[in-house]
Amino acid sequence: MSRTNKHFRKILHWGLWWLLATAASSHANEQATQLKTLTLSTVQVHENQDLNQHAGIGLLRQALANLGYSLRIVSAPSERSLRLASAGQVDGELLRIRDMTFEYPQLRLVNEAIVTSKVFLVTRKQSAPANRRWRQLDAQQLITVQDVYVSELMPSKFRQLPLLNAPNYRTALKMLSAHRGDALLIPELYLPLVEAIPEIGWRENFVLLRPAVFELSGFVHLHFRHHQLVLPLAEEIKRLKAQAH
Predict the structure, then answer these.
(1) What's the pTM?
(2) Residues 187 and 128 sit within 8 Å (Cβ to Cβ)
């Protein structure tokens, strides 16, 4: 065999090796970027809410991405959101203030909060005390959206008041505006969503009373088919929170 042919075969050999190595590397990179989608339901604050405005979403997205998942969020009324997650129609529930696994045994608690939020009382502007403080509010009935009221955390003057439950904050604010209750409990993390609700006139009609009445932490729940993800996700959320401080 001539020296030229030997040289050509050597070039061909290295060329084929490089192509195979590049293809393998490209395939590995492609697999690495193909994240599995995790769909979580969440409480519908109003029909046209921007779900990415939820506090804690950036943290959760990063934690899931580090574990090989992308996050998709869908909204539903409070009770239906839990039922969807429990039935496995979605992969879990985005944000609850307490462990829901006793009532929904198909769910698994990710036991590291993605957000902690102050909870405020809101009242009609014309009913608000002059100093805008809840201690001076004369309330006879409270409005709440399911899962926000925690009786043992409420100030004693409100603890025994009758409660009106609303399916979402649009309805709750309409009830408050119609004098069907005297004050509404709203977590601070929902305020950007609530203020964006069309037609309610947040700034013109309502007042946030100070100080906050209590604080709540929000947790993810996953359907039991993702039980293997529960502990790694909790640990990754904890790691990212520590890294941010």
Answers:
(1) 0.74
(2) no
